[in-house]
């Protein structure tokens, strides 16, 4: 089981990393909103296939409470990301995205009074440093 989790994490990271490159290339041919419509349509089709096949099961829960999350995470995030990637190169976008864990940890410490251990902060810093080193060389 642990090997599957590690492999899944590596695969997700690879797909996420290449998404900036693919987005940048796709934006040479279509507008950002057209690209997003294709992206959301494909995601919707895959979700419906998983839902119909029974891989994903939705219960009767109050999903309307997640409206703010639905608005900010996939919708606004992808709109801003796509327009941003259109204006800068994909390696710079990767470095900006790599800052997300750093900013989240800083905000969590100040706003939520969360305290991580030293090992956690070392791993977050190492991840960001790795992205910077990959983009510099």
Task: Provide a descriptive summary of the structure in words.
The chain is mostly helical. It folds into 2 domains: 88 residues, no CATH class; 39 residues, no CATH class. The chain contains 6 helices and no strands. Helix 1 packs across helix 4. The longest helix has 25 residues. The two termini are 35 Å apart. The mean pLDDT is 85.
Low-confidence stretches: none
Query: Which structural category fits the helices and strands?
Result: mainly alpha
Count of helical stretches: 6
Determine Rg (CA atoms, Å): 18 Å
- Please summarize the sheet with the most strands: none
Shape type = globular
Per DSSP E runs of 2 or more residues, the count of β-strands stands at: 0
Strand residue percentage: under 5%
User: Whole-number average pLDDT?
Assistant: 85
Number of domains: 2
**H/E series, N to C?**
HHHHHH
Helicity level, as a percent range? over 70%
**N/C terminus separation:** 35 Å
